[in-house]
Design brief:
The complex is a heterodimer of chains A (298) and B (262). With 298 residues, chain A is mostly helical. Helix content of chain A is 80%, strand content 0%. Classes of the chains: A mainly alpha (298), B alpha/beta (262). The interface between A and B is medium-sized, with 20 and 26 residues.
Chain lengths: 298, 262
């Protein structure tokens, strides 16, 4: 753990340095235009200083994004009129409120998707007809751009009276079932011929082979694919939120882009990234505990 | 004494032809063999001679395409469903998510022994293979030789009369192998089981067996069956005795005879 700190710090510092340099370079044009319009001569230090404090920069600098993130989370909730301290409920201008909305839809969709993916995998492994027929469809489903199909699913569901969390969760499930199904098929098929022969010598039933060998053997594969799946779920939810309005990080991203609020967009992206790492981390934690309890070595 | 014991495994004119993309492969050709109760039979020969295939036929993991094969007077598949044998594979194949005791318990769970009986049997076979006290360890915490001993314990746990072993010590070094060979003999003496043992080590075959079946490939067939004159009680240094060397010589001759067509 301690040994990994230095490389991480170096990489983070490098990213920040590149980010600052890129921001100055990209925002410089606006500063130069302003100066030309005003008829003043400016030097590189003026450009650099101005590029880091524009209100709507092409690329905001990290400390602007950090300040905005802080303002939309802690400051908004602790001191804002709509914040939880003064109003008793989370502010709909703050990121926490929207992140929680996204989180609940993602979690629900991920639950659906993972469950469906596991069932599909069991079907594929145990049923020859499903083995031959399901995978091409599952692959085809993933080649359709989610941005194209998400609004359609939402419109269709809306017309039959389903709205709110469910449509978002369905898009999230749509993206997460696939990696889970693929990983789980591989996991359920991981026992080798010798292990299956051995169960035959015990005259074990197919059910016993599933519960005692295939399912436990698939666990490392399942968890690896659950991590991919949960991240895919979050992407699905955010894409589903774009056309929806209401609460959610996706809605905030779209609102930010309507009004050219680049700093707010970046702060929202940071919130989405934190949410994603928290969810992947949570799956990782369950993985560690489960596999350790099952006795898999490291 | 062994010649008067009742037959346990009987093969008559056994043939097995695999259909492959390159045409039919004659894995077993006209194999006749009788294994009697309490025998320790080794199958020796170069790879492709059908020694493993024969063992798999006995275990009903392969089905012969001609001839007859009976195990305990039944067809191999009936014997398998009656759990007539324990099978030890080349690799220990222990489940990494189960402790050693848990692994040995696996066949007992599948066969529906109650919990108290399971524990009693696990203790007993752990003791038999000298792994008492290792029940709570996980496979990765044990050496290769200990893992293979655990897998033998697993095959012994449900007390089948026949023990089939397919090159169980092939992946182990010579020193560990010697020790395990001694242990297998002790085990055989203590349990009185009928053992079928596949190997490609001449000293191993001669040291362990009451009957040595020498096989040769293409097609897989028996070239010699040697009834060992060695006593059942065998200290390790019996391998320096004149009789031992004579049998080993005969095995080597048999193997060479099978190779003339190469």
């Amino acid at each position: 753990m301690r040994r990994s700190v230095l490389p991480v710090v170096v990489v983070v510092l490098a990213i920040l340095a590149i980010w600052y340099a890129a921001a100055v370079w990209m925002n410089a044009q606006w500063t130069r235009d302003q100066a030309a319009r005003a008829g003043v001569q400016i030097g590189w230090s003026d450009i650099a200083r101005d590029a880091m404090q524009q209100e709507r920069p092409v690329l905001p600098v990290p400390h602007q994004v950090a300040a905005e993130f802080w303002r939309l989370t802690w400051v908004e909730e602790a001191t804002g009129r709509r914040g939880i301290v003064q109003s008793g409920s989370l502010s709909n201008r703050g990121l926490v409120y929207h992140a929680l909305a996204t989180l609940s839809a993602t979690a629900l969709g991920f639950g659906f998707g993972a469950g469906f993916g596991i069932l599909l995998a069991v079907g594929i492994v145990y049923n020859r007809a499903m083995d031959m027929s399901v995978m091409p469809w599952a692959i085809a489903s993933q080649t359709i751009p989610i941005v194209a199909i998400a609004p359609m699913i939402i419109v269709v569901l809306n017309s039959v009276g389903i709205s709110g969390l469910i449509p978002k969760a369905i898009i999230a499930a749509y993206l997460s079932f696939f990696p889970v199904a693929v990983g789980m098929v591989k996991g359920l098929r991981s026992p080798d011929g010798m292990q299956l022969d051995q169960l035959r010598t015990y005259n074990a039933t197919a059910g016993q082979a599933f519960w005692k060998l295939r399912l436990p053997a698939s666990m490392p594969y399942l968890f690896a694919s659950l991590k991919v799946g949960v991240a895919a779920s979050l992407v699905g939810t955010i894409v589903a939120e774009l056309p929806l309005g209401g609460a959610g990080l996706g809605t905030r991203l779209l609102a930010g882009s309507y009004y050219g609020q680049t700093i707010q967009i970046w702060a929202t992206l940071i919130a989405a990234a934190l949410l994603a790492s928290a969810m992947v981390g949570a799956v990782g934690l369950v993985q560690r505990v489960t596999l350790k309890r099952m006795g898999f070595s490291r | 004494m062994t010649t008067t014991a009742p037959p346990v495994i009987e093969a008559k004119g056994l043939n097995l032809v695999f259909q492959t993309a390159d045409g039919p492969v004659h894995a077993l050709k006209d194999v006749d063999l009788t294994i009697r109760k309490g025998d320790f039979v080794s199958f020796i020969g170069p790879s492709g001679c059908g020694k493993t295939t024969f063992l798999r036929c006995v275990a009903a993991l392969e089905t012969a395409t001609g001839g007859t094969l009976t195990v305990n007077g039944m067809t191999p598949d009936e014997a398998r469903r009656k759990r007539a044998y324990g099978y030890v594979f080349q690799a220990a194949g222990l489940y990494p998510w189960r402790t050693i005791a848990g692994n040995i318990r696996l066949p007992l769970e599948i066969m529906g022994f109650d919990r108290a009986e399971q524990n009693r049997r696990v203790e007993r076979v752990l003791d038999l293979v000298e792994l008492s006290g290792f029940g709570k360890k996980y496979p990765w915490q044990l050496s290769g030789g200990m893992q293979q001993r655990a897998s033998i314990a697993r095959a012994l746990a449900f007390d089948a009369d026949i023990l089939l072993m397919d090159e169980p010590f092939g992946a182990l070094d010579e020193i560990v192998r010697d020790r395990l060979n001694e242990e297998v003999l002790k085990l055989w003496a203590a349990t009185g089981k009928t053992v079928g043992f596949v190997t490609h080590s001449i000293p191993e075959a001669v040291y362990l067996s009451t009957k040595i079946v020498v096989m040769s490939p293409r097609p897989g067939r028996i070239t010699d069956v040697i009834d060992s004159p060695l006593p059942r009680e065998r200290p390790l240094d019996i391998r320096d005795s004149r009789e031992f060397i004579e049998i080993a010589h005969r095995v080597r001759e048999g193997l060479r005879a099978g190779h003339v067509d190469d």
